[in-house]
Amino acid sequence: MKIEAEWMRGGTSKCWVFESADLAETQTSVDVLLPRLFGSPDHRQIDGVGGATSTTSKAMILRRPLDGDVDVEFTFAQVGIEEAAVDWGSNCGNCSAVVGLYAIEKGWVSAGDDVTRIVTRNTNTGQIIIQQVATPAGALPTMPEARMPGVPFPGYQVGLGFQDPAGKTTGRLLPTGSARDVVLTGGTRWDVSMVDAGAPVVILRAQDLGLDPEHYDMWFGGVELQLQTLERIRRQAAVLMGLAATPGEAARAVPKVAIVAPPSINDPDADASVMMLSMGKPHPALAITGSIALTLAARTPGTVMNEFMGAAVHPRLRLRTPAGVIETWSEERDGSQLVGVDRTARTIASTTIHLPEAIDSTVDASLAGATR
Q1: pLDDT tens digit string along 122-175?
Q2: Residue 358: per-residue pLDDT
Q3: 327 and 319 in contact (C-beta within 8 Å)?
């Protein structure tokens, strides 16, 4: 079996990009096909194309919809590493940045003057994301030169604007109806905020985990010592947010966990310090969908994050992450709220993936006409 694919970097993630029609031709369920292509289950993913980390074991499935309101529809797949499983429960904001670039490079949309606007729809959440790719003089630059925190090399500049992002998964910005909730686990009461925007996120105070806001560089070790506790909190939050019937049924990718604190007094470049978890481990940068949730949480009275930000919130929010400061923005446009962030993206390789054995599985009918 041979499958055509592009290997692309979007933001601080890498993903394999497939067209839905190509996957449908395999007559194999994507829930079975993708783990085998990536080499799962195996913590090394040695016999597949996965990168053996949560930020590099990702796939994007693209299609051109028939309606004229959207240029590209895409489905995000978080492919398990130790498990032969795929999590479809959320979108990846970093990998979303490849969609507009792919559409331009493949000729799905024509490059505009200076900036090309691509309207995309994420099928995991139903979220409309307005992508703006820099195309000076009506074409992609010969050499990409845009830079961003967490990536040592340049890429093409891509702006992501999430249109009216609140409640796309659960139906409400505050899934429980409250800006603050208590999660009980391990005999301890945890004061949290649960927010759904971009992706469902449960937000905790760093101080409650014994993390010092003045020593952000020491958070990583402190968080790693409490991963089991954070996972229990996350699973309890999944039930409270209506994402799972029991903690044991909670998906691996949602809700996400964000740990927040005021910035250090010696950090004038940030409005907040943040560390997020990705698939149970500290994220090396920041989940962009999670940053959208944090942006709205900062503007929502009563949340854990608004508690220390208060009235000092501006149209742009600067978040200190392990990779550096990431800035989000929000604005009103054409009667809609756009919450966004600027990323970079680049195509790394165009390739044919070889799968030596046949897979005994039934095709996912959704791929025949639409992605998940």
Answers
A1: 999 999 999 999 999 999 999 999 999 999 999 999 999 999 999 999 999 999
A2: 72
A3: yes
Domains along the sequence of the chain with CATH: 2-165+344-369 (3.10.310.10), 181-342 (3.10.310.10)
Q: What CA–CA distance (Å, rounded) separates 247 from 13?
A: 28
Alpha carbons 222 and 194: distance in angstroms, whole number: 22
- Specify whether the CB–CB gap between 208 and 233 falls below 8 A: no
Give the global pTM. Answer: 0.89
Number of Cβ within 10 Å of residue 262's Cβ equals: 19
- Residue 95, sorted as left (phi over 0), alpha (psi -120 to 50) or beta, turns out to be alpha
Residue 59 near residue 102, CB atoms below 8 Å:
no
221 contact partners, CB below 8 Å, separation of at least 6: none
CB 309 within 8 A of CB 356: no
Q: Are 355 and 3 in contact (CB under 8 A)?
A: yes
